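Q: Could you fold this chain for me?
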Amino acid sequence: MKSLAILGSTGSIGQSSLDVVASMPDRFRVVALAAGRSIEKLAEQAARFRPRLIAIDRAEDVSRLERLLPAGLGCRVVPGREGLDEAARHPDADTVVGGLVGALGLRSAYAAVRAGKRLALANKEPLVVAGELILAEARRSGAELVPVDSEHSAIHQALRAGRPGEAARLVLTASGGPFRERRLDTFDAITVEDALAHPTWKMGPKITIDSATMMNKGLEVIEAHFLFGLPGERIDAVIHPQSLIHSFVEFVDGSLVAQLAKNDMKFPIVYALSYPERHPNDFGRLDLVALSRLDFFELDPRRYPAIALARQALAAGGAMPAVLNASNEIAVAAFLEGKISFPDIVDVVSGTMESIGHHSAPGSLDEAEEADRAARQAAGDLVRRRGAAVAAR
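A: Sure. Below is the predicted structure, expressed as C-alpha coordinates.
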Protein backbone atom coordinates (compact mmCIF):
# COMPACT_ATOMS: atom_id res chain seq x y z
CA MET A 1 0.00 0.00 0.00
CA LYS A 2 1.30 3.45 -0.95
CA SER A 3 1.10 6.36 1.49
CA LEU A 4 0.24 9.81 0.15
CA ALA A 5 0.61 13.44 1.13
CA ILE A 6 -1.89 15.52 -0.82
CA LEU A 7 -1.06 19.22 -1.13
CA GLY A 8 -4.00 21.36 -2.15
CA SER A 9 -6.49 18.75 -1.00
CA THR A 10 -9.57 20.99 -1.22
CA GLY A 11 -8.83 22.07 -4.81
CA SER A 12 -9.93 20.22 -7.93
CA ILE A 13 -6.77 18.07 -8.19
CA GLY A 14 -6.80 17.33 -4.47
CA GLN A 15 -10.43 16.28 -4.48
CA SER A 16 -9.92 14.08 -7.55
CA SER A 17 -6.90 12.52 -5.85
CA LEU A 18 -9.00 11.69 -2.81
CA ASP A 19 -11.65 10.21 -5.10
CA VAL A 20 -8.95 7.89 -6.44
CA VAL A 21 -7.91 6.94 -2.90
CA ALA A 22 -11.51 6.28 -1.92
CA SER A 23 -11.98 4.00 -4.93
CA MET A 24 -8.82 2.00 -4.17
CA PRO A 25 -8.60 1.76 -0.36
CA ASP A 26 -6.48 -1.38 -0.57
CA ARG A 27 -3.81 0.42 -2.62
CA PHE A 28 -3.57 3.96 -1.19
CA ARG A 29 -3.84 5.71 2.16
CA VAL A 30 -3.47 9.36 3.13
CA VAL A 31 -0.93 10.39 5.77
CA ALA A 32 -0.95 14.17 5.23
CA LEU A 33 -3.31 16.80 3.85
CA ALA A 34 -2.52 20.43 3.10
CA ALA A 35 -4.95 23.16 2.09
CA GLY A 36 -5.54 26.87 2.41
CA ARG A 37 -8.65 28.29 4.04
CA SER A 38 -11.45 25.85 3.14
CA ILE A 39 -11.56 24.68 6.75
CA GLU A 40 -14.95 22.91 6.69
CA LYS A 41 -14.07 20.94 3.57
CA LEU A 42 -10.68 20.06 5.03
CA ALA A 43 -12.31 18.83 8.24
CA GLU A 44 -14.63 16.58 6.21
CA GLN A 45 -11.66 15.15 4.33
CA ALA A 46 -9.74 14.55 7.56
CA ALA A 47 -12.70 12.73 9.12
CA ARG A 48 -12.95 10.43 6.12
CA PHE A 49 -9.26 9.76 5.33
CA ARG A 50 -7.77 10.14 8.84
CA PRO A 51 -4.36 11.72 8.06
CA ARG A 52 -1.64 12.05 10.66
CA LEU A 53 -0.85 15.66 9.71
CA ILE A 54 -2.87 18.57 8.38
CA ALA A 55 -1.21 21.74 7.09
CA ILE A 56 -3.27 24.91 6.79
CA ASP A 57 -2.52 28.45 5.67
CA ARG A 58 -3.23 30.57 8.76
CA ALA A 59 -2.38 30.07 12.41
CA GLU A 60 -5.68 31.68 13.44
CA ASP A 61 -7.57 28.81 11.79
CA VAL A 62 -5.89 26.05 13.83
CA SER A 63 -8.32 26.10 16.76
CA ARG A 64 -11.33 26.35 14.44
CA LEU A 65 -10.18 23.29 12.48
CA GLU A 66 -9.39 21.33 15.63
CA ARG A 67 -12.94 21.92 16.91
CA LEU A 68 -14.33 20.45 13.69
CA LEU A 69 -12.16 17.33 13.72
CA PRO A 70 -13.60 14.09 15.13
CA ALA A 71 -12.64 13.24 18.69
CA GLY A 72 -9.74 10.83 18.95
CA LEU A 73 -8.44 11.46 15.43
CA GLY A 74 -4.95 12.08 16.80
CA CYS A 75 -4.00 14.38 13.93
CA ARG A 76 -1.49 17.22 14.24
CA VAL A 77 -2.42 20.59 12.70
CA VAL A 78 0.49 22.81 11.63
CA PRO A 79 -0.01 26.24 10.03
CA GLY A 80 1.96 28.27 7.52
CA ARG A 81 4.98 27.40 5.44
CA GLU A 82 6.25 25.12 8.19
CA GLY A 83 3.14 22.96 7.93
CA LEU A 84 3.29 22.82 4.15
CA ASP A 85 6.95 21.81 4.14
CA GLU A 86 6.31 19.21 6.83
CA ALA A 87 3.50 17.69 4.79
CA ALA A 88 5.69 17.66 1.67
CA ARG A 89 8.47 15.72 3.39
CA HIS A 90 6.33 13.61 5.73
CA PRO A 91 8.44 10.56 6.63
CA ASP A 92 5.56 8.13 6.04
CA ALA A 93 4.63 9.48 2.59
CA ASP A 94 5.85 7.56 -0.45
CA THR A 95 4.27 9.99 -2.89
CA VAL A 96 3.42 13.69 -2.69
CA VAL A 97 0.62 15.05 -4.86
CA GLY A 98 1.51 18.63 -5.78
CA GLY A 99 -1.89 20.17 -6.41
CA LEU A 100 -1.28 23.71 -5.17
CA VAL A 101 -2.16 26.52 -7.57
CA GLY A 102 0.48 28.89 -8.88
CA ALA A 103 3.97 29.56 -7.57
CA LEU A 104 2.70 28.74 -4.05
CA GLY A 105 3.68 25.15 -4.71
CA LEU A 106 7.34 25.93 -5.44
CA ARG A 107 8.86 25.37 -1.99
CA SER A 108 6.69 22.38 -1.19
CA ALA A 109 7.63 20.74 -4.50
CA TYR A 110 11.29 21.39 -3.74
CA ALA A 111 10.88 20.01 -0.21
CA ALA A 112 9.29 16.81 -1.55
CA VAL A 113 12.04 16.33 -4.12
CA ARG A 114 14.75 17.07 -1.57
CA ALA A 115 13.27 14.36 0.67
CA GLY A 116 13.49 11.87 -2.20
CA LYS A 117 9.74 11.45 -2.65
CA ARG A 118 7.86 10.64 -5.81
CA LEU A 119 6.32 13.97 -6.77
CA ALA A 120 3.05 13.61 -8.66
CA LEU A 121 3.14 17.15 -9.99
CA ALA A 122 -0.12 18.73 -11.10
CA ASN A 123 0.82 22.40 -11.25
CA LYS A 124 3.18 23.73 -13.89
CA GLU A 125 4.69 26.57 -11.94
CA PRO A 126 7.42 24.85 -9.88
CA LEU A 127 9.20 23.65 -13.01
CA VAL A 128 8.51 26.89 -14.89
CA VAL A 129 9.89 29.03 -12.06
CA ALA A 130 12.77 26.81 -10.92
CA GLY A 131 13.02 23.82 -13.22
CA GLU A 132 16.80 23.57 -13.17
CA LEU A 133 16.93 23.74 -9.37
CA ILE A 134 14.25 21.07 -8.90
CA LEU A 135 15.75 18.70 -11.45
CA ALA A 136 19.23 19.07 -9.96
CA GLU A 137 17.85 18.27 -6.50
CA ALA A 138 15.93 15.27 -7.88
CA ARG A 139 19.13 13.88 -9.39
CA ARG A 140 20.89 14.31 -6.05
CA SER A 141 18.15 12.76 -3.90
CA GLY A 142 16.87 10.12 -6.29
CA ALA A 143 13.40 11.67 -6.28
CA GLU A 144 11.04 10.88 -9.13
CA LEU A 145 8.79 13.34 -10.96
CA VAL A 146 5.66 11.91 -12.57
CA PRO A 147 3.38 14.52 -14.16
CA VAL A 148 -0.33 14.73 -13.41
CA ASP A 149 -1.14 17.42 -15.98
CA SER A 150 -3.10 15.46 -18.58
CA GLU A 151 -0.88 16.53 -21.50
CA HIS A 152 2.38 15.66 -19.78
CA SER A 153 0.94 12.45 -18.41
CA ALA A 154 0.05 11.51 -21.99
CA ILE A 155 3.61 12.21 -23.13
CA HIS A 156 5.03 10.27 -20.19
CA GLN A 157 2.88 7.29 -21.18
CA ALA A 158 3.57 7.55 -24.92
CA LEU A 159 7.33 7.73 -24.38
CA ARG A 160 7.18 4.21 -22.95
CA ALA A 161 6.64 3.03 -26.55
CA GLY A 162 10.25 3.86 -27.43
CA ARG A 163 13.70 3.98 -25.94
CA PRO A 164 15.48 7.07 -24.56
CA GLY A 165 16.59 9.35 -27.37
CA GLU A 166 14.08 8.03 -29.91
CA ALA A 167 11.53 10.84 -29.47
CA ALA A 168 11.83 13.38 -32.28
CA ARG A 169 8.98 15.69 -31.29
CA LEU A 170 6.37 16.19 -28.59
CA VAL A 171 2.93 17.45 -29.61
CA LEU A 172 0.71 18.94 -26.92
CA THR A 173 -3.00 19.12 -27.62
CA ALA A 174 -5.21 22.05 -26.65
CA SER A 175 -8.97 22.42 -26.64
CA GLY A 176 -8.72 25.96 -28.00
CA GLY A 177 -10.71 27.29 -25.05
CA PRO A 178 -14.02 29.16 -25.37
CA PHE A 179 -12.80 31.62 -28.03
CA ARG A 180 -11.51 29.32 -30.75
CA GLU A 181 -14.05 30.67 -33.25
CA ARG A 182 -14.83 34.09 -31.76
CA ARG A 183 -14.14 37.12 -33.95
CA LEU A 184 -10.86 38.76 -33.03
CA ASP A 185 -12.35 42.26 -33.20
CA THR A 186 -14.68 41.37 -30.28
CA PHE A 187 -11.99 40.28 -27.81
CA ASP A 188 -12.11 43.63 -25.99
CA ALA A 189 -15.72 42.81 -25.02
CA ILE A 190 -14.94 39.41 -23.46
CA THR A 191 -16.32 39.19 -19.93
CA VAL A 192 -15.09 37.12 -17.01
CA GLU A 193 -18.15 34.88 -17.41
CA ASP A 194 -17.32 34.35 -21.08
CA ALA A 195 -13.74 33.38 -20.29
CA LEU A 196 -14.74 30.98 -17.51
CA ALA A 197 -17.07 29.01 -19.81
CA HIS A 198 -14.58 26.32 -20.81
CA PRO A 199 -16.04 23.97 -23.44
CA THR A 200 -14.39 20.77 -22.19
CA TRP A 201 -12.87 20.82 -18.70
CA LYS A 202 -14.21 21.88 -15.32
CA MET A 203 -11.30 23.61 -13.60
CA GLY A 204 -10.48 26.40 -11.17
CA PRO A 205 -10.77 30.02 -12.36
CA LYS A 206 -7.05 30.71 -12.83
CA ILE A 207 -6.32 27.72 -15.03
CA THR A 208 -9.58 28.25 -16.92
CA ILE A 209 -8.49 31.77 -17.87
CA ASP A 210 -5.06 30.40 -18.81
CA SER A 211 -6.85 27.99 -21.14
CA ALA A 212 -8.77 30.86 -22.71
CA THR A 213 -5.59 32.86 -23.41
CA MET A 214 -3.69 29.62 -24.11
CA MET A 215 -1.03 30.68 -21.62
CA ASN A 216 -1.52 27.25 -20.10
CA LYS A 217 -0.17 25.71 -23.29
CA GLY A 218 2.81 28.05 -23.25
CA LEU A 219 3.58 27.07 -19.66
CA GLU A 220 3.20 23.41 -20.68
CA VAL A 221 5.81 23.85 -23.41
CA ILE A 222 8.26 25.11 -20.77
CA GLU A 223 7.33 22.34 -18.35
CA ALA A 224 7.69 19.68 -21.07
CA HIS A 225 11.19 20.98 -21.80
CA PHE A 226 12.22 20.35 -18.19
CA LEU A 227 10.34 17.08 -17.75
CA PHE A 228 11.44 15.39 -20.94
CA GLY A 229 14.67 17.17 -21.88
CA LEU A 230 13.73 18.29 -25.40
CA PRO A 231 14.41 21.83 -26.65
CA GLY A 232 11.48 24.15 -27.22
CA GLU A 233 11.70 23.92 -31.00
CA ARG A 234 10.89 20.20 -30.75
CA ILE A 235 7.76 20.78 -28.65
CA ASP A 236 4.67 21.70 -30.65
CA ALA A 237 0.98 22.22 -29.93
CA VAL A 238 -2.20 21.71 -31.94
CA ILE A 239 -5.85 22.51 -31.37
CA HIS A 240 -7.91 19.39 -30.67
CA PRO A 241 -11.43 20.52 -29.63
CA GLN A 242 -12.61 17.12 -28.38
CA SER A 243 -9.76 16.95 -25.80
CA LEU A 244 -9.70 13.15 -25.99
CA ILE A 245 -6.19 12.72 -27.39
CA HIS A 246 -4.21 14.30 -24.60
CA SER A 247 -0.88 14.52 -26.46
CA PHE A 248 1.36 12.76 -28.98
CA VAL A 249 4.96 11.68 -29.21
CA GLU A 250 6.51 11.53 -32.67
CA PHE A 251 9.43 9.11 -32.82
CA VAL A 252 12.45 9.27 -35.12
CA ASP A 253 10.94 6.68 -37.48
CA GLY A 254 7.89 8.88 -38.10
CA SER A 255 5.54 6.91 -35.84
CA LEU A 256 3.09 8.94 -33.77
CA VAL A 257 1.98 7.46 -30.45
CA ALA A 258 -1.03 9.08 -28.80
CA GLN A 259 -2.76 8.62 -25.44
CA LEU A 260 -6.56 8.78 -25.24
CA ALA A 261 -8.86 8.73 -22.24
CA LYS A 262 -12.05 10.34 -21.00
CA ASN A 263 -11.86 13.96 -19.90
CA ASP A 264 -11.39 13.14 -16.24
CA MET A 265 -8.33 14.07 -14.18
CA LYS A 266 -8.65 10.86 -12.19
CA PHE A 267 -6.99 9.01 -15.07
CA PRO A 268 -3.64 10.90 -15.01
CA ILE A 269 -3.78 10.97 -11.20
CA VAL A 270 -4.10 7.20 -10.82
CA TYR A 271 -1.37 6.76 -13.43
CA ALA A 272 1.02 9.02 -11.50
CA LEU A 273 0.25 7.30 -8.20
CA SER A 274 0.53 3.78 -9.65
CA TYR A 275 3.40 4.08 -12.17
CA PRO A 276 4.99 1.88 -13.45
CA GLU A 277 1.97 -0.34 -12.77
CA ARG A 278 -1.54 0.18 -14.12
CA HIS A 279 -4.48 -0.48 -11.82
CA PRO A 280 -8.03 -1.41 -12.88
CA ASN A 281 -10.57 1.30 -12.06
CA ASP A 282 -14.24 2.16 -12.51
CA PHE A 283 -13.73 5.68 -13.91
CA GLY A 284 -15.50 4.91 -17.17
CA ARG A 285 -14.23 4.19 -20.67
CA LEU A 286 -14.24 5.89 -24.05
CA ASP A 287 -16.81 4.66 -26.55
CA LEU A 288 -14.70 4.70 -29.71
CA VAL A 289 -17.68 4.25 -32.02
CA ALA A 290 -19.48 7.18 -30.42
CA LEU A 291 -16.46 9.43 -30.94
CA SER A 292 -17.28 9.71 -34.64
CA ARG A 293 -14.39 12.11 -35.36
CA LEU A 294 -11.23 13.68 -33.98
CA ASP A 295 -10.36 17.15 -35.28
CA PHE A 296 -7.03 19.02 -35.30
CA PHE A 297 -6.25 22.62 -36.21
CA GLU A 298 -3.20 24.84 -36.26
CA LEU A 299 -2.79 27.41 -33.50
CA ASP A 300 -3.52 30.93 -34.74
CA PRO A 301 -0.77 33.18 -33.29
CA ARG A 302 -3.05 36.23 -33.53
CA ARG A 303 -5.70 34.51 -31.42
CA TYR A 304 -3.22 32.97 -28.97
CA PRO A 305 -0.20 35.31 -28.62
CA ALA A 306 0.57 33.93 -25.16
CA ILE A 307 2.27 30.86 -26.63
CA ALA A 308 4.80 32.99 -28.49
CA LEU A 309 5.58 34.82 -25.24
CA ALA A 310 6.18 31.52 -23.47
CA ARG A 311 8.51 30.34 -26.22
CA GLN A 312 10.32 33.66 -26.00
CA ALA A 313 10.75 33.17 -22.24
CA LEU A 314 12.04 29.62 -22.68
CA ALA A 315 14.52 30.73 -25.36
CA ALA A 316 15.74 33.60 -23.17
CA GLY A 317 16.22 31.22 -20.26
CA GLY A 318 17.49 32.46 -16.92
CA ALA A 319 14.72 33.87 -14.77
CA MET A 320 12.49 34.80 -17.71
CA PRO A 321 10.13 31.80 -17.37
CA ALA A 322 9.60 32.84 -13.73
CA VAL A 323 8.84 36.39 -14.87
CA LEU A 324 6.36 35.08 -17.43
CA ASN A 325 4.57 32.98 -14.85
CA ALA A 326 4.41 35.60 -12.09
CA SER A 327 3.21 38.40 -14.34
CA ASN A 328 0.56 36.11 -15.80
CA GLU A 329 -0.74 35.29 -12.31
CA ILE A 330 -1.05 39.00 -11.53
CA ALA A 331 -2.72 39.76 -14.86
CA VAL A 332 -5.21 36.90 -14.59
CA ALA A 333 -6.16 37.96 -11.05
CA ALA A 334 -6.67 41.53 -12.27
CA PHE A 335 -8.90 40.35 -15.11
CA LEU A 336 -10.98 38.20 -12.74
CA GLU A 337 -11.41 41.27 -10.52
CA GLY A 338 -12.55 43.40 -13.48
CA LYS A 339 -9.51 45.68 -13.40
CA ILE A 340 -8.24 44.96 -16.93
CA SER A 341 -9.65 43.60 -20.18
CA PHE A 342 -9.07 40.12 -21.55
CA PRO A 343 -6.49 41.26 -24.17
CA ASP A 344 -4.71 43.20 -21.41
CA ILE A 345 -3.64 39.90 -19.79
CA VAL A 346 -1.08 39.13 -22.49
CA ASP A 347 -0.12 42.81 -22.79
CA VAL A 348 0.71 42.96 -19.08
CA VAL A 349 2.85 39.83 -19.35
CA SER A 350 4.67 41.14 -22.41
CA GLY A 351 5.23 44.55 -20.81
CA THR A 352 6.57 42.95 -17.63
CA MET A 353 9.02 40.79 -19.57
CA GLU A 354 10.29 43.87 -21.40
CA SER A 355 10.66 45.89 -18.21
CA ILE A 356 12.43 43.17 -16.22
CA GLY A 357 14.86 42.16 -18.96
CA HIS A 358 17.21 39.19 -18.77
CA HIS A 359 18.44 37.78 -15.48
CA SER A 360 20.57 34.69 -14.95
CA ALA A 361 18.93 31.46 -13.84
CA PRO A 362 18.17 31.44 -10.10
CA GLY A 363 20.81 29.61 -8.10
CA SER A 364 18.55 29.08 -5.10
CA LEU A 365 14.90 29.11 -4.12
CA ASP A 366 15.40 32.54 -2.57
CA GLU A 367 16.63 33.87 -5.91
CA ALA A 368 13.73 32.21 -7.73
CA GLU A 369 11.27 33.81 -5.32
CA GLU A 370 12.99 37.17 -5.69
CA ALA A 371 12.53 36.99 -9.48
CA ASP A 372 8.91 36.08 -8.84
CA ARG A 373 8.45 39.05 -6.47
CA ALA A 374 10.07 41.53 -8.86
CA ALA A 375 7.87 40.38 -11.72
CA ARG A 376 4.73 40.60 -9.59
CA GLN A 377 5.57 44.15 -8.58
CA ALA A 378 6.26 45.21 -12.17
CA ALA A 379 3.09 43.52 -13.41
CA GLY A 380 1.08 45.16 -10.61
CA ASP A 381 2.38 48.56 -11.67
CA LEU A 382 1.28 47.90 -15.24
CA VAL A 383 -2.15 46.77 -14.07
CA ARG A 384 -2.61 49.95 -12.04
CA ARG A 385 -1.60 52.14 -14.97
CA ARG A 386 -3.99 50.35 -17.30
CA GLY A 387 -6.78 50.60 -14.75
CA ALA A 388 -6.17 54.32 -14.35
CA ALA A 389 -6.21 54.81 -18.11
CA VAL A 390 -9.54 52.96 -18.40
CA ALA A 391 -11.04 55.04 -15.57
CA ALA A 392 -9.92 58.27 -17.25
CA ARG A 393 -11.73 57.49 -20.51
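A (continued): The chain has a mean pLDDT of 93.
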